[in-house]
């Protein structure tokens, strides 16, 4: 029994199976710039026992003879179907199968991740993802792309993530096929695609096929399109310049089209004018892609997206130009065969293609068709270096770790290799406002500006089982508080507590409290005021007035010292009493004791009484000028008070 041979056929396949186990019958496919190609091949075989697992994921090559040599269409078998047994031809049943062939890039649609990239350019990010799937690629880009501080892939396939980044920066791709492999080519200039051959225009009747390779159907369309792209952005790290409106505005206009038709967009992914102009140019190039395009049909086997050709022989001379193929639909007829026969004879051409092309002078940019994922608010952990409670940046930013990072955790040395996240405060102005910086281990709420996963902002914090509230709930549900924790880890705190059940306000600090009032300080207490100072109290005032409406009781545990620079005047409305074991009254110049009714000096049973009526002296013995000595008492000295320390005026934190 002679097996079918493909060697003499103009279209044939090579698979992971031996030789001519599978023979190409027909194929149809779609290929376009910045889109993975798809090739549907109908295959026949004498074997009825072929299994999908022998071919899925393996390489399949479709070989097509052309005037320039052999054209390859290479990819991997993404789907394999048992279709039906073929007709009994020549007493031999041929079994029919169908294989869907896609590029290696298509494997990225099978993976889905939540992750981010830090300090990498768009090309470095794309190359990293491609490397995970062993995608063969070539970088033909010429522009310089900045490193992105934060670029997130969030709940999207690896393919959508890569497509979204390339579309945003105006980078397109196509495929090269050689040596049984498909190579992805990344490009951002019109000169990157390969130059092809000249293809003649040969219009034919609708019921006939052209005898030679040619373009036999041609339509050239021009449209009115947007002529100017304007982008604007905001850079919080250069807020003053951004607030001047024009600082980050970028514009680009097309050479053709109506320039007053403007596409104005808020673009969040650039912070320099150069990057803005590059993105604006990519945007207008993408919008201008529809301004002029050709569609046609051809039997030329070399037509492929990413290749250029020159049209010749068209009746209109202005159509004979250089074109870039951007999209193609293929239909390949390998021909029926009788087992043992070497080739088939058919009237229909082996290769038929409908295509879309742009004049080569028009730069191609991919349309922004891949949607950006929308990220809602989510919680995360605050990070700091090991052993540190906090890690902040000059704009009040912190670093956070999202819970979905557990699916692809960073290595220990790269845990902090991530962007700084801005922290929303209750009030923020120029050197004024509120500042509460999150600490390591806190669970926080992270939202995303405009839902963009590349623009996180920390908007709040949450209690959890590891970080419970400061008071047991619901027992103390009436209490509200601001409580901080000592960085020393000793359990101390600063706290401002509001008890709305008992209408109590508590101000507590485990360390030092400073009150600095630059002008007046007024205090009013409706009932009692209590103060306990366990150590010393130091008070210094310019002048002091006390008014005590009721009584006053002062107790000094040791010595009391009172000093006045000029006068000390004390007055009592009724009684005035000075008591001590020894009372010593000393006047540097004179001592005057005056009473309007009576003055008495008394010691034991002796006394001297002076009244307006006279002087009375009484004692067991009264001696005048009879010798003896005056009594004495220990002298006292006034001690100067210690000066108080000045309160912190807050200038050290400016």
UniProtKB/TrEMBL annotation:
Residues 396-463 form the Gp5/Type VI secretion system Vgr protein OB-fold domain. Residues 645-654 have a biased composition (Basic and acidic residues). Gene3D superfamilies: 2.30.110.50, 4.10.220.110, Baseplate protein-like domains, Gp5 N-terminal domain. Residues 635-644 have a biased composition (Low complexity). Residues 627-654 are annotated as: Disordered. InterPro entries: Gp5/Vgr_OB, Gp5_Vgr_C, T6SS_RhsGE_Vgr_subset, T6SS_Vgr_RhsGE, Vgr_OB-fold_dom_sf. Residues 480-576 form the Gp5/Type VI secretion system Vgr C-terminal trimerisation domain. It holds the Pfam family Phage_GPD. Belongs to the VgrG protein family. This is Type VI secretion system tip protein VgrG. It comes from Trinickia dabaoshanensis.
């Amino acid at each position: 029994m002679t097996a079918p041979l493909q060697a003499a056929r103009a279209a044939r396949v090579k698979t992971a199976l031996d030789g001519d186990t599978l023979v190409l019958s027909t194929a149809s496919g779609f290929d376009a710039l910045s889109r993975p190609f798809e090739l549907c091949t109908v295959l026949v075989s004498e074997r009825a026992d072929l299994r999908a697992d022998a071919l899925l994921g393996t390489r399949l090559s479709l070989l097509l003879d052309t005037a320039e040599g052999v054209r390859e269409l290479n990819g991997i078998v993404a789907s394999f179907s048992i279709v039906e047994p073929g007709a009994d031809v020549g007493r031999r049943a041929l079994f029919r199968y169908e294989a869907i062939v896609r590029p290696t890039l298509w494997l990225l649609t099978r993976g889905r991740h939540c992750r981010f990239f830090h300090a990498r350019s768009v090309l470095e990010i794309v190359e990293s993802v491609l490397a995970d799937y062993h995608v063969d690629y070539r970088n033909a880009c010429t522009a310089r792309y900045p490193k992105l501080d934060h670029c997130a892939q969030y709940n999207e396939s690896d393919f959508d993530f890569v497509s979204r980044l390339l579309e945003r920066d105006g980078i397109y791709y196509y495929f090269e096929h050689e040596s049984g492999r498909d190579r992805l080519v990344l490009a951002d200039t019109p000169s990157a695609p390969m130059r092809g051959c000249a293809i003649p225009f040969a219009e034919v009747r609708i019921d006939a096929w052209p005898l030679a390779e040619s373009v036999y159907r041609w339509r050239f369309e021009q449209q009115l399109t947007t002529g100017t792209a304007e982008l604007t952005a905001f850079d919080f790290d250069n807020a003053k310049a951004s607030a001047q409106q024009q600082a980050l505005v970028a514009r680009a206009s097309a050479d053709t089209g109506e320039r007053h038709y403007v596409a104005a967009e808020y673009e969040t992914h650039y912070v320099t004018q150069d990057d803005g102009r590059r993105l604006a140019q990519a945007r207008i190039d993408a919008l201008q892609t529809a301004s002029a395009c050709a569609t046609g049909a051809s039997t030329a086997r070399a037509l492929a997206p990413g290749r250029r050709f020159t049209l010749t022989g068209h009746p209109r001379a202005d159509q004979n130009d250089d074109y870039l193929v951007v999209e193609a639909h293929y239909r390949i007829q390998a021909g029926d065969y009788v087992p043992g026969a070497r080739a088939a004879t058919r009237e229909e051409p082996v290769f038929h293609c409908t295509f879309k092309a742009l004049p080569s002078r028009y730069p191609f940019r991919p349309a922004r068709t891949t949607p950006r994922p929308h990220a809602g608010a989510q919680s995360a952990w605050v990070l700091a270096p090991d052993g540190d409670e906090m890690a902040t940046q000059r704009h009040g930013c912190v670093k956070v770790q999202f819970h979905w990072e557990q699916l692809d955790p960073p290595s220990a040395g790269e845990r902090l290799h991530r962007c700084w996240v801005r922290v929303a405060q209750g009030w923020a102005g120029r050197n004024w406002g509120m500042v509460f910086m999150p600490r390591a281990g806190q669970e926080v709420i992270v939202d995303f500006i405009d839902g963009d996963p590349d623009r996180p902002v920390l908007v709040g914090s949450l209690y959890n089982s590891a970080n419970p509230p400061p008071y047991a709930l619901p027992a103390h549900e009436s209490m509200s508080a601001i409580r901080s924790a000592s960085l020393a880890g000793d359990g101390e705190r600063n706290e401002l507590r509001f008890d709305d059940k008992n209408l109590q306000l508590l101000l507590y600090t485990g360390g030092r409290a400073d009150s600095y009032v630059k002008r007046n300080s007024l205090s009013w207490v409706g009932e009692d005021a209590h103060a306990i100072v366990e150590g010393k109290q130091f008070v210094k005032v310019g002048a002091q007035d006390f008014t005590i409406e009721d009584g006053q009781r002062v107790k000094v545990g040791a010595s009391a010292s009172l000093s006045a620079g000029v006068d000390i005047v004390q007055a009592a409305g009724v009684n005035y009493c000075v008591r001590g074991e020894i009372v010593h009254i000393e006047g540097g110049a004179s001592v005057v004791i005056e009473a309007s009714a009576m003055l008495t000096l008394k010691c034991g049973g002796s006394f001297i009484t002076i009244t307006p009526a006279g002087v009375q002296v009484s004692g067991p013995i009264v001696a005048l000028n009879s010798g003896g000595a005056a009594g004495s008492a220990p002298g006292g000295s006034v001690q100067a008070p210690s000066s108080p320390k000045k309160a912190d005026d807050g200038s050290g934190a400016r």
